[in-house]
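Records of this kind hold a single protein each, on a pair of labelled lines. Below, a sample record shows both lines together.
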Amino acid sequence: MHHHGYLWAGPKERFDQEALRRPPHPEPPPAGSRPELIQRYREVAAEFPTSDLPPLETAYWLLKPDSLVRGTWQDAKEAASWLGERLAEYAPRFASERDQDASRLARLMSSAAEQLHSSADVSYGFYLEQPSFLHLAVVTCAPNRAASALPCPLG
């Protein structure tokens, strides 16, 4: 078992494009469906696997390009440490003063280490200066507890 780290920071408007943050349905729309439905399915089917947008379900990061992996660790504490470093790096830009609190960030990092140690994924999101959003995730791989059939992005 190992862990992969992911980071996405960008416009909140782009983050809110939920259709592009979920994998396409395994079956395309049936023949005779409305053209706009077929077009939307094609768009999502093409965009999801290549998009840097965070997936709605954390485990689906494993379906994204390996170029989006920001780090890989065997040890849960090392993965949580990476997460803590990113939290500290972005904290001055958090929109909420509560989110900037150093003791709160330390608790998040400690909680992340526990979750990762038990093979769970970790995902955090923060509003940055308007209108931006930060998404951080560490995904357990080989296998992922929530989606064991998903392949490791690094082969």
